[in-house]
Amino acid sequence: MRFYCFILLLVLSLLSCNNANPAAITSSYIKAKSEASNHVANAHVRRHFSTHERFVEEGNEDSFEERTINMKLPDAAKLQSLINFQPLKKLAANIQKSTSDNQKATKELFESLDVGVVGSGIFQSTPYQTWAKFVTKVYKKNPEAGQAAMFSILRDHYGDEPLAKLLAEAHEVFSLLKLNVDEDDLLKNPLLSTWMSYEKKLGTENPNHALLLKLRERYDDADLAKMLVAAKNDRSTQVIATHVERAQLESWLNGKKTTEDVFKLLRLNTDTGVDLLKNPALKIWMKYVATSGQNAYQLLLLKLRTKYSDEQLAKILDVAARDSNVRIEVWKLEGAQHNDWLGGRASADSIFKLLKLNKEGEELFKSPILDTWVNYVAKLGKKSMDETMYSVMKKYYSDEKLEEMFAKAKNSIFTRKLASDLEQEMWRSQGKTADDIFKFLNLDKKDAYKLFDDPKIVTWATYVNRLNSLKKIPDDFALISELEKRFDDLDLARMLVYAHPPEKRKVLLPSCKNCSSRSGGPRVGHPHKSSRHWKNRAQTTC
């Protein structure tokens, strides 16, 4: 590939110098000795290779083409001047002076293969490709010398003007740079920017569209989309990939492709379940949908519903939400599903049945789609989610069965909070008082001074606060008031003081968080047997 790069970049660089000071240019070439001619070529190649790298690092999209070679098309006058261009003649002379056996063999093969007979399209011809492979092999240890030898032979055979004309054709340049065989890393090829700049100089309105056409010669839309998504994740190719992706979207729009057409072009209709959501091409399809003013997630939901029931879809989304390879924001797709239910005024009960949660039995809290239902209930905007959920569950399960299910669910950190809240809602709906639950939890049988060491005291305290929150005028000291029914002030104060760890008091007495502004500050001395004094004492322990 280096030879092709060398020919193009050398000739174009010389052409671009036609407006510069000839003496200065000639001097820079004559300075080199005969063996340094290869370094001249390499300098051009390195300069053009670094152009694309600097562009990527700076991230300047607007100057993508302009920051490549600043050449002008070779008109007749320029081509004529090329023939008499002294640096080029000097370079050729130096190359001829370094004739070797390998160079003789290279020239003999050029003649025996009739490479020069081909004329137009030489760089894609079989004789030329065979010749180039031979030279690459012969000059394996010194590829620059091989490039120089080939250039010398081509120049001697064609002359400056015909050779320059061959190079001036953009499609020949694409082949010359070997971009047509760079299968995997085409977008990373530093010389790609050179070709795109050349396209622009030839008058191509949008080089990105020209590149898209080249890419479509070897990729279909589906594979190209996947390649572009991957390239956008690479800093070195992010900008060019974004340009080509935009060109791809524009080509579909100009071709009046429907969203269904593009869905099939990207072969998304062949994927199923989570595999569809992991397909890199899906994001490009969703961008195309957005250009038509439609909601991409809503349209994707409609497509999924042609294959899956709401229950199956909810399970797919649950799996997708935990898969790092999924390309979309799953919560938005779930939100589209919820909005569709809301639009149909679906009740919590109807969705419970739609997801077949009523048939889960004792495994209800293990169902992967229970969260889907819980999240939907939250969007219904009811005053009490717990009340709504419990009212639905009790239609399908007895209180005894629910009590068992809640107990099991509280053993898992994933369902503990939900099960506890629903259990307390069940107690409330059954009319259970704080005293009833105190006894139900067997807290009445605990040693008074070890009461706060029992984790069930937190359950009881939470239930007391739940009942208190439903009152028209909540009591800031609801917990204390309930405890006063069982313990006198002195015992209760001691129980709190000796509770370990001290942080447990704040958990047990959350209603005390605003007590400081009401109690008048801490007191010292022996607590009197009055509710008011005890509440002040409770504040100091909080």
From TrEMBL:
Residues 1-20 form the signal peptide. This is RxLR effector PexRD54 WY domain-containing protein. It is found in: Host cell; Secreted. GO terms for cellular component: extracellular region; host cell. Belongs to the RxLR effector family. Its main location: host cell. It comes from the Eukaryota. Residues 525-536 have a biased composition (Basic residues). Residues 248-289, 338-377 form the RxLR effector PexRD54 WY domain. The keyword Secreted applies. The keyword Signal applies. Residues 515-542 are annotated as: Disordered. Keywords: Secreted, Signal, Virulence.
